[in-house]
Please model this.
Amino acid sequence: MSHRYKKSEHLLNEALELIPLGAQTFSKSKTQFPYGVSPYFVERGDGSAVWDIDGNKYIDFINALAAITLGYNDPDVTAAVSKQLLSGVTFSLSHPLEVQVAKEIIAMVPSAEMVRFGKNGSDATTGAIRLARAYTGREHVAVCGYHGWHDWYIGTTARNLGVPETTQKLSHTFSYNDLDSLKKIFLTYPGQIAAVIMEPMSAEFPLPGFLEKVKETTHKEGAVLIFDEVITGFRFAKGGAQEYFGVMPDLTTLGKALANGYPLSAIAGRKEIMKLAEDVFFSFTFGGEALSLAAAFATLKKIQNCNVVDVISKLGEKIIKGVNELIIKHHLQAILTCIGHPTRSFLIIKDHSAYSEWHIKSFLLQEMFARGVLTLGTHNMSFAHQESDVFNLLMIYDEVFALLNTALSSNSLEQQLRCNVLIPLFKVR
Model:
């Protein structure tokens, strides 16, 4: 048992007897964090930092899987939630905040004409698919990216256990930046595709004209275009990736950054499609829960008034530039590169001649965690990150990349590991 993570490991072992995987979220589970060198339980967060239950402090670049955009315990959000808490959380009738937050989303997101709330991103994407099916009278969908845990999407992945085969046959994957792979789906299922749902960007930038051609092809075939902006919404621009790239979908799904860590998601889009939600059943007891709506209202106001997107973009640019310079300095270009949008960049790892990417990732996580950086290979930026956080991150990468280069050169990487190598599992993107 690791002394540094003694309490975390003890609690994890207890949790595994009570909770499948010992965690409520796959991406926070032991499948993603190598045992013996990882924290598993966070006690608190403030600004850009979190503290695990062993008292170790980390600069957090996971940021609750990109759900934290302003920072932990943001004073404006905390004040709004605290005030609302005194008035109540969930009521027998709708709360005025539902209207107020809907107005803010419509003002910010270019394609939004009406809004409906959910709790998780999966609620929103599934609701959007149901609306598209109702609108078109069709059943098949084309998917690109990660869209949540519900049957219609997860049935297309390796995590399809429990999904009926008939459901799996209705969803079809296409590749990002490969228009022909989308066109092939339309050719195979003529007149049957209800929707094309995609993340407008993940790690790769779209090729020139790609998103425009996806929209053109989708509409030509009579289908609904859905942008899954659960991650990109309110990050790439105030109006999300659709504003950033200048391509408007028919429906947009939002989450994560919407309420700075409070559970809230939304479907937004064209009125003629959204109006179908009066008959399409999309309804939750907690859909109008007021604490999350208060958090969302404060979050969206701050994003609009405090230049949040520009601030986190500029810091993120320094990370991408700095990390790539360090990769060159330590002669690691063959296996490492840093790509993505500045607000959410990725350290991409490739196999080495002697070691898999999983050996390398396990080593990097081991060393980054030990030095007080929480990352899973992404840099999810928040408004609370400071220049000093970026400086410290790059200083730590400099040290860890040097160790990695030495371990690879001497073929001693495996001996340097104090944990089991991560096992390649469910890859969502």
